[in-house]
Design goal:
This protein has eight helices and 13 strands. The chain is an alpha+beta fold.
Length: 338
């Protein structure tokens, strides 16, 4: 039979998909709930008496409780003790989280202030022009340029490079994190180990947030995963589009209150399709008109389609969007989902 600490650890692993390698009773543990070793969104605490515990993920907002004994069979005294420990652990976790969010917020604000507004010919505008095969102007205020941003890989400083920095804001419009893309001076992706794209530690819940590259127009808004993809579809159509910055963020994105038609520009991969479908279901439940548009080529996104100048696909896609927008303005027809 497993010890209570191992049983609790396995319960956390089953719920979150991640858990600490070892859990010490009475200690609040922070751990990663993604592929980044530096991530500390996960948390759990096994009570000192090992009779119960709490756990959750600050990124997803998920939380839960665990008990070594069926709560229905607890005595009143046991139930009171379990409830008091649960509340104590909650207050402890929230205190630590608020302190960490405040520290993250100060770092993010300093980094954002150190960035520059985009101007033609800087590495960011050159990068966008290379990706979209066309200049982007005017540029969204949510994008800035850092001339020499440090890049770390596996904890070590690899070097300093120009970077595109995108502001991730929550549904209230508050800055909660920064998405960074490292570049070369001539607008190429920087030659660095790892992905070359990273999100800073957040200063609040990321759920529902996005990079606000556009605002709803006539009740219409689009959403895509990547910044480049959102810029491409905004350029190729009349649909203002925001970037959710990841598949998970797209699934949980919260649209503005005045939106009546939501266009989801999905990536053509398993994660992209699943995220788009979850967002579609949520939007439909809220009585929004929804269109999900996905490239035909597996693994492609709409930035790939636009950069390849696949004119037949682009024309068909945006003809359909024109029909949807016309129906939306006229308030005619039933919900249509493509």
């Amino acid at each position: 039979m497993n010890a209570p600490s191992e049983t609790f650890r396995l319960a956390v692993l089953a719920e979150l998909g991640y858990a600490p390698d070892h859990i010490e009773p009475g200690k609040l543990h922070r751990f990663t709930t993604c592929t980044k070793a530096s991530d500390r969104a996960g948390w759990c605490k096994l009570f000192a008496d090992e009779r119960g515990g709490v756990y959750g993920c600050n990124r997803s907002g998920m939380s839960g409780t665990w008990s070594a004994k069926d709560r229905a069979s607890m005595t009143p005294a046991e139930h009171t003790a379990w409830r008091m420990q649960t509340e104590k652990a909650r207050r402890e976790r929230e205190f630590i989280q608020r302190r960490q969010w405040a520290e993250n917020g100060e770092r993010n604000a300093r980094l954002w202030a150190a960035c520059r507004d985009l101007v033609p010919g800087d590495p960011v505008t050159l990068y966008i022009k290379r990706r979209l095969l066309a200049p982007l102007w005017p540029v969204p205020l949510a994008l800035r340029f850092h001339p020499a941003l440090p890049y770390r890989h596996e904890g070590d400083l690899f070097g300093c490079f120009p970077a595109m920095v995108a502001a991730i804001t929550n549904p209230a419009g508050e800055l909660v994190a920064l998405h960074r893309t490292w570049l070369s001076r001539d607008g190429q992706k920087a030659n660095v180990p790892g992905p070359g794209k990273k999100v800073t530690q957040a200063s609040g819940p990321l759920i529902g947030g996005c990079v606000r590259l556009g605002a709803p127009m006539d009740g219409v808004i689009g959403v895509a995963e990547g910044v480049e993809t959102a810029l491409a579809v905004s350029m190729a159509s009349v649909v203002p589009t925001v970037a959710a910055y990841s598949a998970g963020a797209l699934a949980g994105w919260i649209w503005p209150a005045d939106v009546r038609l939501l266009v989801i520009f999905a990536d053509a991969d398993k994660a992209g399709r699943e995220a788009a479908d979850r967002l579609r279901q949520r939007a439909q439940a809220a009585a929004l008109r929804v269109s999900v548009l996905t490239p035909q080529e597996e693994g492609a996104d709409w930035c790939d389609v636009w950069a390849a100048r696949d004119l037949p696909t682009t024309a068909r896609t945006f003809d359909r969007l024109h029909d949807l927008e016309t129906a939306n303005r006229e308030g005619a027809g039933h919900d249509r989902n493509d």
